Amino acid sequence: MNLEALIGELITLFMMAFALGMDAFSVGLGMGMIKLRLRQIFYIGLTIGLFHIWMPLAGMWIGKVLSGTFGHIASLAGGALLIILGVQMILASFKKDQESMITPVGFGLLFFALSVSLDSFSVGLTLGIYGARTLLTILMFGVVSMLLTWTGLLIGRRVQTWLGTYGEALGGSILLGFGLKLIFPM
């Protein structure tokens, strides 16, 4: 693989990781309003980062199995899945009743991390179908989501919640765009 193709793959993976991490960022903004300690913020970000590694890894493994079996049909299904996820994230950003009352400790933290990383399972499924580099993908997803979660939690301590809505809409738009690109290659 030449350098230009590698850089293109890195940029694409970063954009996807950023889109997936925006969900954690926007929820982190809301969670940051409950005045968490820095130690709690550290553990929340770390947990979400780990979930954003394991969920796409499982999805990629299943996607690789499916791609060998179903080929082009699986590619179209993966693109459709990204479009559905993107639209769902955009629509969810307009709903006002999405306040989370789960505290980010213990089982609540695990539930919180699972809920914001479920979409990375689906994206991992799509990337597995396309044969993306597994280690690079999961590390990019994990690190970016961890950093965005920390950023959201820290900013959430200082700003209003309006940014969370726009962050989730931005993430949904990016996933929607990638889904359209997979279904309608240029």
UniProtKB/TrEMBL annotation:
One of its GO terms (molecular function) is manganese ion transmembrane transporter activity. It comes from the Bacteria. The keyword Membrane applies. Its main location: membrane. It is found in: Cell membrane. The chain crosses the membrane at residues 6-29, 41-63, 69-94, 106-130, 136-156, 163-184. Pfam families: Mntp (PF02659). One of its GO terms (cellular component) is plasma membrane. The keyword Manganese applies. It is a multi-pass membrane protein. Keywords: Cell membrane, Ion transport, Manganese, Membrane, Transmembrane, Transmembrane helix, Transport. Probably functions as a manganese efflux pump. Belongs to the MntP (TC 9.B.29) family. This is Putative manganese efflux pump MntP. It comes from Metabacillus indicus. The gene is mntP.
